Each structure stands twice: as structure tokens, then as C-alpha cells.
Amino acid sequence: MKVDKTLVASVALHVLVIGWGLISFSARSLEAPPPESMPVDIISADQLSKITAGIKTGEKDKPKPLVEKIADARPVDDAVGKITEKKEIVTASAPEPPPKPVEKPVEKKPDPPKPVAEDKPKDEPKPIEKKPDPPKVDPIAEALKSEDTKKPVSKPEAKAAPPPPPKPKQERTFDQSKIAALLDKRDPTRQSITGAALNSSASLGATRGTAATLSQSELDAMRARLASLWNVQPGVEHPEELYVTVRIRLNPDRRLAAPPQVVSSGSSARYQAAAEAAVRAVLQGQPYTMLRDETYEQWKYMDIDFDPKQMFRS
Amino acid sequence: MPVTSFSLPSLPFNRRDILIGGAGAAASLLLPSLASAQTKLQVTEGNVAPLPIAIPNFVAGSPADGEVGVGVAQVITNNLKHSGLFAPIDQAAFIEKIVNIDAAPQFQSWKAINAQALVTGRMTRQGDGRLKAEFRLWDVTSGQQLTGQQYFTSPEYWRRIAHIISDQIYERLTGDKGYFDSRVVFVDETGAKERRVKRLALMDQDGANVRYLTRGSDLVLTPRFSPSTQEITYMEFGQGDPRVYLRNIETGQSEIVGNFPGMSFAPRFSPDGQRVIMSLQQGGNSNLFVMDLRSKSTTRLTDTPAIDTSPSYAPDGTRICFESDRGGKPQIYVMPATGGPAQRISFGEGSYSTPVWSPRGDYIAFTKQGAGQFSIGIMKPDGSGERILTSGFHNEGPTFAPNGRVLMFFRDPGGNSGPSLFTVDISGRNEQRVPTPGFASDPAWSPLLS
User: Fold this and answer.
1) How many other CB atoms sit within 10 Å of the CB of residue A286?
2) Least confident of A193-197, B202-206, B336-340, B401-405
3) Please, which residues 250-309 of chain A have a Cβ atom closer than 8 Å to chain B?
4) Are the beta carbons of B311 and B279 closer than 8 angstroms?
């Protein structure tokens, strides 16, 4: 029996040790996929104001068709940050709404920065939904309940008309109804997203809208084209030093607007030769037909890194 | 050699390019403020393909210069093609005929045939009998003149001019020094296998201008170039023991290096050409000695009961690599040039021999024997990064081109055939046979002549 006990103990120990070994050693290393560079715009205050300016013109045109795309108009406005516009409209048209403008700018100001950051890396619908929800929950819910479609239409375009209804309801409502309103609202916002894109087509390229984001496939196609033209010498000494960055400016016709600029630096003759090879590739690659018109703002200026290091790993 | 050179100024029409460059510079000043919206693109895979280059026949400055104009273009074409880094375009494809090298070529017609670089040149016999050679190298895609030179020399040195121009093109487009204006000393082998006559021979790097330095009465082995003088050192079996000799290739005078009892072999010059390092036989072993060619003083570097041989200096002269069987099989060791502790750097399967340090210092080439094969390979001086460049029945005796990017070695296919010379890039690409009049072995590459 004793023998059995020790045997059992040893078996148990072995199982433990082996099991522990299996668990701890069989773990696969997490393979992180190589990070793909994503085109990201950092928009300055000036640019934001320019964008809003563009929207102003859009609004002027919109008033007539507004009814149909009622829901759409709102999210677009919020995202862009049309504080200035609304203020103007409010002052011009209706004396009553003074409280509203105060509320809206406060709410909207925080929003615009978020969409800019979120839109580019992530999908279209989510950011747009998030923005409209918190600020306008009450008015929309009420509007939907009371007048269904008409009120939302009126709010975005003619800001004077909607103000009265939201004010009283905003103050107090049942929680359940609010939730319902939220749910209800989400559907229209989704529809409105699509609608928003249509409305703001003029400003698409500049601000948001995934349609205007330089896609990975475009970049990959451009990368492939440059790789096929980039002449790399075998057997070169210290290839890790031959990292060349070429800055280009492109015209809308996808050709270079100016000679490529080598913005990285190196003093050796080998570096000069490498830089010239990179410039040759960029010159030969034009026109870059894989780039779309809608994304022009994003490929107008590009920095292209030519890095031969990985080719010489042995 | 009587070659004088002057740089050709850029053509006046290049002012336009300068203006463009100026505009570009101005644009670059503006760019940083706009750079915030810039998209980054990273290209990490390129095309390891030879650069397409067009080399039309050089224009004849006078009717009598047509032949040399064609010859120079052919030599340049051949040089660049054999380097593996350039793909000269067949002249039959050319659209534009270059008639005046002082006018800009029509770059569109060269782009049309996918040329990325263009060489134009002119050969002119001068009134004083000298030959004037001019050339310009153009970047076809940007329309810039990359370099331009003119040379004056005696007409018989036209091949040398072509090599110098080849080096200029190579250096401008790769950033590395060229190696075309150089020579190779080797052992020429003729006759039946059992009665092979071996003569010391000298030729241009491309196989032209072969000269024989010895008559073949005595067996010669392992010739080596001096890095700084017109001298070679080699091992010759005269009367009695084989000895290390020193020979002036211009005057033909030769002398024995040192006066040692027994056999001396495997000589090689120091980087400054002032000393010769070699092996001396001592009983069943051999050790390394270095001899100062001026003072004739000899210094012993190793004292081991083993065979130490095939020493080779690092280009800075501070260290040597050599072959030794002190660990059993022949392996490569590195030690200070003044002697001292040696560190083994080769640890692969098989045995390693004939190490030679690259003139640019980054690699040591060797012959590796194992598994019934002889291979040529390179490794870093610390023993890492071993790379086999070629393998086969018998490959031996690597020697570096002056720029350290190409190796020459000899290959013997076995049977009744004989050895011949080959070159290979240190990346293992572009193996090429070097034309020789007969069989050839033991090549040694000279430094650049100019």
C-alpha cells in the first residue's frame, strides 16, 4: 500500500508538473501584426473653421430639400460644429431661443474634436451616433412622439421654429420615455448618417466621412507601384543607414506638382545614390492613378519612406 | 600611367533644372507648415534588379576616332553589365542618335526605352597626338547631369580610359567606389594535366591585356598584389625548397624575401605595402612571421605546435586573420597584427582555409571544405553572418575586388579539364566567368590603379 501511495504521489506530482509545463510552455506567443500606418488628419482650429464655413453654404442650399432628409441634417451639423452658424441664425430669425444657443454650443463644442479623432480610425456609424445622442435626446424624443417627422426637419434647418417645443419638455420627462426616445432616436440617426453624407457632399473631402478617407488599398497600391520601381542594390554596405524619406506634393491629376524633396539626410555617397534611386522611383511612378479624387486632401502631401533594411536581413 | 582628368562643367541648359531645384527648395520651406495633414507611406520592399542604362557609342571627334568611340562604349557596357548592378540596353533599341554631347539629350526618347541613366561621350584625337575622352552621365528621369569628366591620355591607353569612366559611372550611381580600373595577377595553366605548365600572368580585371611574368620553367603559386607599389609577392618552387619571392612587374626583377632555412609560403602584403607576412615551415609545423621589406627585420607572430598559415591583414593593419589547425581541423583565427592571443571565429561544419580580409573591412572571405564540396563564403570578422556564396567540386582562393563588393576565385570542375576564374557578388548573386587565355587559378586582385 505504501508503495502505492508513493506511486500515486509521484504520479500526481508528475501530472502536476507536466500539466503545468504544458500550460505554461505551450502558450503561443502573441503575434502582433505589423502596425499598418493609417492616414490621420490633425485639424487645426483654422481648418475647422474653414470646414464650418463650407457647411454654411451647404445649409443655404439645403432649406428647400430639407424636409426629406430631416434626420440627416442634424448629425452633420453637430459633427462639424456649426456653432457660429446657429448663433447667426438664432439672432437673425428668432429672439425667443436665446437659451438654446447657449446650450447647444456648450454641448457641441466637446463633440467636434471627438468625431475627428474617432472617425478616421474607426467605422462611420458609431461616432456619428454617439455625438447626437447625449445632447439632443430630449428634443428629438419629444419631437418624434409629438410630430413624428416634421419637427426634426425644422430644427436643423430653420432653427427658430423648433426651439419652443424642446424647452418645456427638456426640463422634466419620465426616465422610461427618455430611454424609448433614445432607442427611437438611434434609428433615425442611422438613417440620418447616410443622409448626412449626401447633404454634406461638398465638405466630405475635408472633414469626415469615411468615403473621403485614404484607404489602405489605395496606399497599398501606391506602395506596390513604388516598390516595383525602387531599385535597390544588392551587397551595399550598411543598408540600415540608407533610410530615405521623400516628400511630395501632388496635383489633382495625380502627377507631382513639384520635384520630390528628400527630407531625410545623409552625407555619404552611398546615401546620395540611395536618395536618387528613391526619387527616381517617385518620378517614374506618376501618375498615381490608384488615388481617388475624393481623398485628394489626404494625398496632396505625402512623406514616403524608403527603407531597405528589411531586404538585407540574413 | 599618363592619364590626366578634368571635370566637365554642367551644360548651360541645366540652369533650368537649377531653377526647378530652387523652386523645390522654396516649396520645401513652405511644406512644414502644411505638413500636418501629410500622409506617411512606408516602402520596405524594393526591386533588386540591375539599373537600366543606355550607353551609345561615343561620338567621334574626328573621322579617325570612330573605332575607339565604339570600343570605349563596348568596354564600359561590358564592365557595367558584369557588375550585375546595371543592365545596359541593346543599342538597337535606341531611338535618339547622339551626335553632340554638348547638347542635352532628348530624355523622352530615352525614357521610352526605359533607360534610367544615359552615358554620352566623345573621343577626339588631339593635335599633339594625345587622345581626349569626354563623357557625361545623365539621370534620365530627372533630366539632370550627374557627372561629367574629360581625360587626356596616349591613344594606346583607351581601354584604361574606358575603365576609369566605368568607375565614375559606378561610383556616381551606387555610391561605392568602382573596381574596373584594376588588374588581376593569376597562375596561367597550359598543357596536359600531368605536365601542366604554370606561369604567372597579369591582366586587366575584364580579362584583356594579358601579360606573362614568368616563362613557366618553375612552379609558381599564390601570387599577391602589393597595395601600393608595382610589386607582387608569390611562392616559387626553384632549386630546393619553395620560397617567397618579390617581383617588380614593371622591371621583371625578383628577389627572395628573407633568408630562412626551410620552406616559406603563403605570403601577403601589409596594407601599407611595407611588410610581407607569411608562413615558415619549422619541422612538421609552420608559424607566422612578418618581415619589414626595408629593414629586412623579421618578427615571429605565432609559436604553436600547429600549422598556422594563410595570414591576411585587416585593411587598417591592426589585426590579421589566418588559418590554423591548432584546434584539430583547420579553422580561421583572428589576432592582433603584432601577435598575441588568437580568437577562433569559424565554427561551422567542415574545415576553413585561405581567409582573406575585405578591403572595406566588413567581411572575411574563405574556402570551406566539407561534405565532399569546396565552397567560397564570407563571414564577419567576429565570426557571425557566415554566408556561402558558391559550392561545388572545387572552388578555392577567394580575392576581393578593390571595393569589397565582388569576389574572384577559381573553380576546377574536375576530370581532365582545368581551373578557370569566376567572380561573384558578396550577396551571392551574379556569378560570372572571367575570360582567360587558358586554364587559370590563384587569382589576386590589385587595388585601384588610379
Assistant:
1) 16
2) A193-197
3) 258-259, 261, 263, 268-274, 276, 279-281, 283-284, 297-309
4) yes
Same domain, B377 and B237: yes
Chain B from 231 to 250: CB within 8 A of any A CB:
none
* Residue pair A280/B142 in contact by the 8 Å Cβ criterion: yes
- Name the residue facing B21 among A234, A259, A273 (closest C-beta): A259
Domains of chain A: 45-210 (no CATH), 214-312 (3.30.1150.10)
* A262: region left, alpha or beta (phi > 0 left; psi from -120 to 50 alpha): beta
Task: For chain A, say whether B387 makes contact (Cβ under 8 Å).
Answer: yes
A230 to B46: CB separation less than 8 angstroms, yes or no: yes
> A277 burial class (0-12, 13-18, 19+ CB within 10 angstroms)?
buried
> What secondary structure letter does DSSP report for A162?
S
How many other CB atoms sit within 10 Å of the CB of residue A312?
A: 16
Average the pLDDT over A281-297 and give the result: 86
3-state DSSP helix/strand/coil % of chain A, to nearest 5: 60, 5, 30
pLDDT tens track for B229-273:
778 998 888 777 788 888 988 888 888 887 777 788 888 999 988
Contacts of B423 in chain A (CB under 8 A): none
For A21-140, list the strands marked E by DSSP: none
Q: How confident is the model at residue A179 (pLDDT cuts 50, 70, 90)?
A: low
Range of the domain at B109: 3-14+49-174
